[in-house]
Design a protein that fits this description.
By secondary structure, the protein is α/β, with parallel strands linked by helices. Helices cover 34% and strands 26% of the residues. It is globular and about 50 Å long.
């Protein structure tokens, strides 16, 4: 008997967001299961960030549904056990990296006790007591990931997390995400760096002009194409399947 499929942690069914100017993102439909890494593939402006904002309650869901753990997402409310790093993470630049994490811990004793651990995990132990305004972009990305790790969330959404990371940092991030998925964390990661998503994602969701062109198991989605880039370009040229 085959083992049961992991439970669905995130489900989008025809989810749409309408901008005031009349542009619509959607319909967006896909699922993410426990311990799965889902890659949102698309160019800048394709709708990846808005999709993540709908999941986190930062953008209204004007049609369709978004559910986390079977519970509908409501505008203005972050779903339980969920965290995100959207675009460039914001910090108190006059404070140190360590102090920013203390503030993020919100007085939770167990989280405060894990600050040194997550700083070490993201490679910022030596820079923990430097002011964030002196951090490079890559260091700020790592601090943002430390804040994500501190949350103990079971659903993590990362928007262009490789921004500012050098090749060694990107390889480190790949290993970190795989490790987290192995612990049962569900991860949705968006990127326009197609070769990176091809290496890390279990499931791919290809988005262009606010619509899903194709989604499915990464291996089957790319079948018949040289790589994810060639698949993406062919889809953009021919439209949704």
């Amino acid at each position: 008997m085959s083992p049961p499929e992991p439970e669905v942690r995130l489900s989008l069914a025809g989810a749409c967001h309408d901008f005031r100017a009349g542009r619509r993102i959607g319909p967006i439909s896909f699922t993410a299961r426990t311990g799965e890494i889902v890659g949102l593939v698309g160019a800048n402006g394709s709708g990846k960030t808005t999709t993540i904002r709908m999941v986190t309650g930062l953008a209204s869901i004007d049609a369709g549904t978004v559910e986390v753990g079977g519970i509908p997402v409501r505008y203005g409310q972050l779903p339980a056990a969920t965290t995100a790093m959207i675009e460039e993470p914001g910090f108190y630049t006059w404070a140190t990296g360590r102090d920013n994490l203390r503030l993020a811990a919100g007085g939770h004793r167990d989280r405060v006790g894990r600050i040194d651990e997550v700083l070490s995990e993201v490679g910022l132990s030596d820079a923990a007591d430097k002011l964030v305004r002196r951090y490079s972009q890559g260091m700020r990305q790592r601090l943002g990931l430390a804040r994500v790790l501190l949350s103990d969330a079971r659903l993590i959404l990362l928007d262009e997390p490789t921004n500012g990371l050098d090749p060694r940092g990107i390889r480190w991030l790949r290993g970190l995400l795989r490790s987290m998925a192995g612990q049962g964390v569900t991860i949705v990661v968006s990127s326009h760096l197609l070769h990176e998503l091809e290496q890390i994602a279990d499931t791919l969701v290809v988005v262009a002009a606010g619509r899903v062109l194709l989604s499915g198991d990464a291996a089957s989605v790319c079948s018949g194409h040289e790589n994810l880039e060639s698949l993406y370009l062919s889809l953009v040229d021919t439209g949704p399947r």
